[in-house]
Write a structure and sequence with these properties.
alpha/beta, eight-stranded mixed beta sheet, 41% helix, globular
Length: 287
């Protein structure tokens, strides 16, 4: 088959998916290597712009862990982790807010705009998008989301923008901002927007039956299987909170959650607009 025929076939294959998702909302949680590598970042950005141009309402939720660690190192402030979560004292919170709501958010917005998208940046304090209370004193200023006001995001989508959201929340129990886990924030926002899909870009192939063997990818997981997978140790470490927030999102009305390998260029397009599923998809129903 010639490359022209192959390209045509790819486009024809994408058509029913475009028809199915146009007008629907998809939340993409963007982080990990896909944020650090220039080539992967450009691939993610162009995927998001393409989806937006075919009428899919795309919302980007991002983290920025490595950038935060770099800045803390620059000012000589040690990063400390408790149970895998960054311990956030006041100095760290200042840096988190500056980096996430400022540098990282605006760089992503600028890059989307440069590549021909229409992006606008929002942080969790804008319009009280994310409202939170302190999760536990042992983590410092880390918040647990108590409410989501999706209106600022909805307004941006309605006027044709791609909202780019950083995960710093407004404190409801104290006069402070809170650092929020980006997976959890993306899941809560997807629920509030009644999103069709939540996509979590990670640095793994998806959920592996054997973490040391990439060929043991589990393509589909039903939410009721998750407790057993945790008990068996198939889901372990940092994948446990990730899977739990996926289950919560589906319980909250999100149709499908995809855990995708952000190290594969254009993994979002391959997963959404082709017959070939490449990550792990979570869903509720049997069929």
């Amino acid at each position: 088959m010639s490359s022209h025929e192959q390209q045509a076939r790819t486009l024809v294959e994408a058509l029913p998916y475009i028809q199915k998702f146009t007008g629907k909302t998809i939340v993409v949680k963007y982080g990990g290597n896909a944020m650090i590598s220039d080539e992967l970042r450009r691939a993610v950005m162009s995927d998001i712009i393409l989806l937006s141009l075919v009428g899919i309402r795309v919302v980007v939720v991002h983290g920025g862990g490595p950038e935060i660690s770099d800045m803390l190192k620059k000012i000589g402030h040690a990063s400390k982790f408790v149970d895998g979560l960054r311990y956030t004292d006041e100095t760290t919170m200042d840096i988190v807010q500056s980096i996430l709501c400022g540098k990282v958010n605006k760089n992503l917005v600028a890059q989307l705009n440069r590549l021909g998208g229409q992006a606008i940046g929002l942080c969790g304090m804008d319009g009280q998008l994310f409202q939170a209370e302190q999760l536990d004193e042992k983590y410092g200023l880390v918040g647990k989301i108590t409410g989501v006001n999706p209106e600022p995001v909805e307004n941006a989508l309605m006027t044709g923008y791609i909202p780019v959201v950083s995960t710093v929340a407004q404190g409801m129990d104290a006069d402070t901002a809170y650092n929020i886990n980006a997976d959890t924030a993306a899941a809560k926002l997807a629920e509030a927007l009644h999103a069709e899909k939540l996509i979590l870009l990670t640095d793994v192939r998806g959920l592996l039956r054997d973490p040391h063997d990439e060929d043991t990818l589990i393509h589909v997981v039903h939410t009721y299987e998750v407790p057993e997978l945790i008990a068996k140790g198939v889901v372990s470490g940092g994948m446990i909170p990730k899977m739990e927030c996926c289950v919560d999102a589906i319980a909250g009305g999100v149709e499908r959650v995809h855990i995708l390998d952000g190290r594969i260029p254009h993994s979002i397009l391959i997963e959404l607009l082709s017959d070939q599923g490449i990550g792990t998809m979570l869903k509720k129903e049997e069929n």
